[in-house]
Amino acid sequence: MERAYHVAEMTASEIDLAFPLAAAADIATDLDQWRRYCEGIIARQQLDGDERLMICANARGYLKAVCLARLTQTQEGAVLDVPMQVVATVLDEEGVREALQEGINALAHRTGSSLRS
């Protein structure tokens, strides 16, 4: 069975596609600023940076959600926090949120961190 949504870390080719989501949530109002912001995070994640941009796309490749996940080292161990999450869909908000949550859970597992509520 084909999954309705695909969640992955954002790539450079998806930055412009995610801009309407960021703009709708007033996270970014300028495309060039958004590009610099995302490119910086993507470049740092190649060097084991502590931030990840995640996207959720439907089966046709349309982006339905974007989030920022931040890994923090604490005395109790690694903690994954999600300070920014934008879901933009009319028909299946719950399905998009569930898929994104599964992707965040998988990232927490890969990084050996717990999720901060």
From TrEMBL:
Domain of life: Bacteria
Protein name: Uncharacterized protein
Source taxonomy: Bacteria, Pseudomonadati, Pseudomonadota, Alphaproteobacteria, Hyphomicrobiales
